[in-house]
Amino acid sequence: MANAPVSIDENKSKMAKIDRQVRTEVETEHQKKAKASQPIPTINLVAAEQKFFDEIVKHNDHFTINHSTNVTMLAHNLYRFEKYKKFVHKMKLDDERIGFYEKQKLAYDRQVALYTSKLGLDMKDIQRMIFEEARLRIEERKLEQMENNAQPKEVNPLLAVLEAMKK
């Protein structure tokens, strides 16, 4: 069984200088082409689905216009899966409809797995996307806390008197 292809930056095996140079050139050309043709949504997405789509494209710069349909469907199904997951979580366990919604959630889970495999995303890539999104959310929360805590400090009246005396 052959080894999985890796980027020239990650390749640690011995390689001739010319081979390394050619592979580097080919990779840079491919990256330029990929950046020139970013995927675009093939169906109208709601704002939350569009956020999923943008995050997927942002963290996987090797996707081209040819991946548009699969990326769009992955974003759509991820959004639906999250929506059903939250809905089922809020339901009471004795609710009769929970089985139906659980089946729907599992169906969207299968669709997500299908489109991630079509796009060639492995668990490492998914974990990286999740980690990056979590990091961004943490930064946003920290910024919100900093803005909330940035209330004007009380002015010490004695300092104001000292400043007046200096003048």
Structure in a nutshell:
With 167 residues, the protein is mainly α.
In words, what does this structure look like?
The protein has 167 residues and is mostly helical. The chain has a domain at 15-121. The chain is built from six helices and no strands. It has helices at residues 17-36, 47-59, 68-90, 98-119, 123-149, 157-166. Helix 3 packs antiparallel against helix 4. The longest helix has 27 residues, at 123-149. The radius of gyration is 25 Å and the shape is flat. The termini are far apart.
- List segments where confidence is low: pLDDT < 50 over at least 5 consecutive residues: none
| Count of helical regions | 6
Order of helices and strands: HHHHHH
Shape: flat
Number of strands: 0
Q: Report the average pLDDT across residues.
A: 78
Most strands sheet = none
Give Rg in angstroms.
Answer: 25 Å
Structural class: mainly alpha
Oligomeric organization of the protein chains: single chain
SSE blueprint:
Elements: H1 17-36, H2 47-59, H3 68-90, H4 98-119, H5 123-149, H6 157-166
Helix pairs in contact: 2-3, 3-4
Question: Which key terms come to mind for this protein?
Answer:
single chain, 167 residues, 6 helices, 69% helix, flat
